[in-house]
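Title: Comparing notes on inverse folding

I've been comparing how different people in this forum approach sequence design from structure. To keep things fair, I'm posting one structure and asking everyone to reply with a full sequence. Here's the target:
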């Protein structure tokens, strides 16, 4: 690939993930002069550009031959998963903080059983048959309320505003 003038619609050698070998591909998309999306001229499979395995083998030392592109993508996927889990954990901590604040604010408030036909407003404490105790944190339009439960904030329907 080096030394050649590449362009969209042109051909290049790439590793085909379907054929499992280095083959000629047509370039579909490029970013900053590098192919990113290609179509195999043999099987017509579209995939992201992967450098030919023959070029990889020439550049690798004998010690590093055991790690291939699959291990790299797994690490990238693992990093994304870890970041996603960290974001979810942060969101859960924020939810628990809000939950604790609402419990302190409504410690002596009576709970009302949730019913779709019920009329609920902000700061009401409800008991839902499936989600448990919840605090109405916002009245929305279209007969809906936003309720903070211990595990999540949910939107429920009710009679308010009719």
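Reply #1:
Here's my take.
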């Amino acid at each position: 690939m080096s030394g050649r003038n590449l362009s969209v619609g042109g051909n290049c050698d790439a590793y085909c993930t379907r054929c499992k070998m280095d083959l000629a591909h047509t370039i579909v998309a490029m970013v900053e002069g590098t192919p990113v999306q290609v179509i195999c001229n043999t099987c017509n499979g579209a995939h992201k550009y992967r450098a030919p395995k023959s070029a990889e083998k020439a550049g690798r030392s004998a010690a590093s031959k055991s790690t291939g592109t699959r291990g790299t993508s797994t690490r990238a996927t693992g990093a994304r998963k870890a970041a996603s889990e960290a974001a979810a954990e942060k969101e859960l901590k924020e939810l628990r903080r809000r939950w604790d604040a609402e419990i302190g604010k409504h410690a002596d408030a009576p709970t009302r059983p949730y019913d779709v036909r019920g009329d609920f407003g902000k700061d009401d404490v409800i008991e839902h048959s499936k989600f448990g105790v919840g605090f109405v944190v916002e009245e929305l339009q279209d007969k809906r309320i936003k309720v903070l439960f211990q595990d999540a904030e949910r939107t429920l329907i009710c009679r308010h505003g009719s």
